[in-house]
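Work Package 4 report. The design task specified in the project plan requires that, given a folded chain encoded as structure tokens, an amino acid be chosen for each position. We show below one input record used in the internal validation round.
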């Protein structure tokens, strides 16, 4: 995340961002939205309080935020509070010429509740530069000038509101439906005037009395009036200085990241090979043997970052299988392969069946007509026209002898640095580990791979933690600090894996060995995933034992059978849903729900939560497993083709309930890029 904030180019925004990291004035919200798909990172500071917020515009009419706050001397002189909270902001009505935009919001609806508030707010723009906002708030926003809840007309239950986190530490993280829009209410509002494209003046009336902070940390509220000045840099970054509550200076910095717009423009890699004239190809291939053609084809594909593992020809059709080692979009690998085939195969080869493969296992096939390549190469609409003419189907049958004799066995390695991050430990909000990693893969036969990865930490604060898990559940994840302390050189995984196709639309995997940092054993999986289907169904069964703390070759006494039935669905647009139901590592039963938004370039933002039969009290702090995940293609940062990604999961707290085994090469992730839905999204790169 820090890498993105440091490097990404943002978009200028018309609306300002509050100290809570959401659309707002200074402390109060407005009825505005960010541009659809925008990520906004905000750091805000005021007296003895710091807030860091990530807000994602999930849909044009809703955004969600995750916030981490550090409050010094909260309630008591010697206590620093590290607080995690979630917000959501719904637009009920768009602004029109004669009426304002209206938004309903929930602040801190799934944290400790110290910032918990609900509100309705309206904003109207005049002459493009002057905006007026007014609203009504409950909870934290019902301080100064509070009055009886107008919703009391619907029942007495709206008249009272419980204190934040009455359930104690085990209640943190629960969604407190029972408090929403209850208790007293108060009004808030403000104005903003955009002087020019860079400067905006802001003023507001805030009813927040900062009652809890005022006890010990020195934040006094003398006035409800806050004023501020915002400066917008050329890249869209906003810096706001403010004078709050008549006593306090504040500073807010917001950085905008548009996932659709890469940091470095694309096209930094080598251009695709131009199509050679057909007459030239006929003359060049007339006297070549099949062996010569194969060798030239293999060399040409190697130059494009593609590995030829299968080659066969029947009549006017050439069938090839390639493994994509370079391109983030499978469609780009298909386009490069088609060009190479057109340049190297004799003219009698009129159509190409190109199979995308992984470790020798065929995933799907695309048929491309040679004539279409020449006809559409310079057509301004060649992307959608070529996709309409391509035929995508389950993989071509592998004929006897089709696998190249020199394709297997195949050895590859990777060596480089790694970075592990741990967030929100109450003793240290950010822990890290930097080291060197060596990965080795040896594919003996198609689908059968021996793999290992060794890691050597060099600089780490993970092993500084002295926390001892208080979990009543088996310590399947909460002993992470012991693993960090007791290990040095680690065998992250050491496995024998076999992937194969048991039938049409079916994929299977069996993995044996040290599967991940904390567990080893046997993992099996079966996936049904038709090429043109939005829906995929899978089942996974595992029997594993917990590894020794040194992460080498020993095991502890704990073992468990775990597994899930999974459903995956590509929703219209950029959205993808996943549901996993089954048994987790601590022996608990339940389900994990995941929703991702994945942009065409592979940039992904998602959220998940897991509910199991473990009670909130037994789960402990956080109440249930939940989090946010980011996946950023390296090509988005560099502009050069790459299959590498930077992935980070942000969990408010890591506990033992709802913990799932981390197995490499789960089948859905391996196969998805070759399905029709994914290919259609990335087909714009077929000609790149």
């Amino acid at each position: 995340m820090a890498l993105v904030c440091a490097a990404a180019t943002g978009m200028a925004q018309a609306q300002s961002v509050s100290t809570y990291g959401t659309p707002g004035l200074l402390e109060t919200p407005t009825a505005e939205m960010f541009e659809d798909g925008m990520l906004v990172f905000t750091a805000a500071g005021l007296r003895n309080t710091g807030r860091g917020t990530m807000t994602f515009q999930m849909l044009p009419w809703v955004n969600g935020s995750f916030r981490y706050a550090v409050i010094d001397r909260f309630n008591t002189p010697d206590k620093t509070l590290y607080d995690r909270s979630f917000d959501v902001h719904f637009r009920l009505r768009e602004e029109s010429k004669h009426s304002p935009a209206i938004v309903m919001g929930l602040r801190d609806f799934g944290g400790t509740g110290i910032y918990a508030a609900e509100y309705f707010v309206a904003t109207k723009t005049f002459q493009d530069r002057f905006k007026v906002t007014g609203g009504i708030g409950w909870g934290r926003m019902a301080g100064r000038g509070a009055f009886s809840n107008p919703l009391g007309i619907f029942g007495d239950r709206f008249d009272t509101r419980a204190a934040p986190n009455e359930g104690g530490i085990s209640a943190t993280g629960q969604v407190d439906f029972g408090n929403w829009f209850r208790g007293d209410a108060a009004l808030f509002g403000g104005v903003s005037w955009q002087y020019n494209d860079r400067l905006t003046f802001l003023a507001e009336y805030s009813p927040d009395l900062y009652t809890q902070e005022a006890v010990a940390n020195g934040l006094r509220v003398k006035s409800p009036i806050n004023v501020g000045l915002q400066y917008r840099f050329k890249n869209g970054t906003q810096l706001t200085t403010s004078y709050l509550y008549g006593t306090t200076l504040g500073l807010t910095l917001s950085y905008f990241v548009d996932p659709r717009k890469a940091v470095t423009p694309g096209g930094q890699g080598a251009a695709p090979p131009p199509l050679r004239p057909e007459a030239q190809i006929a003359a060049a291939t007339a006297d070549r043997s099949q062996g010569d053609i194969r060798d030239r084809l293999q060399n040409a594909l190697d130059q494009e970052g593609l590995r030829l593992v299968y080659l066969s020809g029947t009549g006017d059709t050439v069938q090839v299988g390639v493994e994509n080692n370079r391109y983030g979009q499978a469609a780009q690998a298909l386009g490069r392969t088609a060009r190479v085939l057109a340049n190297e195969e004799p003219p009698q080869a009129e159509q190409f069946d190109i199979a995308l493969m992984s470790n020798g296992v065929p995933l799907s096939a695309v048929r491309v007509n040679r004539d279409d390549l020449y006809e559409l190469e310079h057509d301004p609409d060649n992307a959608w026209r070529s996709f309409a003419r391509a035929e995508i189907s389950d993989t071509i049958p592998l004929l006897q002898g089709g696998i190249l004799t020199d394709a297997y066995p195949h050895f590859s390695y990777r060596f480089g640095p790694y970075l592990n991050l741990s967030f929100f430990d109450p003793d240290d909000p950010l822990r890290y580990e930097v080291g060197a990693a060596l990965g080795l893969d040896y594919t003996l036969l198609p689908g059968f791979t021996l793999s290992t990865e060794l890691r050597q930490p060099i600089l780490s604060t993970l092993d500084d933690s002295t926390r001892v898990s208080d979990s009543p559940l088996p310590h399947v994840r909460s002993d992470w600090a012991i693993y960090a302390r007791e290990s040095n050189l680690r065998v992250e995984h050491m496995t024998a894996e076999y992937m194969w196709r048991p039938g049409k639309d079916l994929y299977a995997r069996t993995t044996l060995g040290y599967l991940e940092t904390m567990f080893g054993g046997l993992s099996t999986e079966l996936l049904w995933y038709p090429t043109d289907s939005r829906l995929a169904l899978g089942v996974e069964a595992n029997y594993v034992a917990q590894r020794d703390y040194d992460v080498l070759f020993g095991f502890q006494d704990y073992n468990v059978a775990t597994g899930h039935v999974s459903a995956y669905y590509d929703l219209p647009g950029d959205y993808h849903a996943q549901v996993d139901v089954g048994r987790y590592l601590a022996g608990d039963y339940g389900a994990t729900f995941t929703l991702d938004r994945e942009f065409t370039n592979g940039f992904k933002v998602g959220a998940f939560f897991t509910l199991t039969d473990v009670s909130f009290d037994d789960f402990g702090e956080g109440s249930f497993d939940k989090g946010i995940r980011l996946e950023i293609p390296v090509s988005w940062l560099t502009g050069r083709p790459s299959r590498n990604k930077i992935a980070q999961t942000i969990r408010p707290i890591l506990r033992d309930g709802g913990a799932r085994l981390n197995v490499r090469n789960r089948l859905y992730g391996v196969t998805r890029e070759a399905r029709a839905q994914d290919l259609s999204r990335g087909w714009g790169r077929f000609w790149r």
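Residues 1-13, 166-171 have pLDDT under 50 and may be disordered. Validation will be extended to a larger panel in the next phase.
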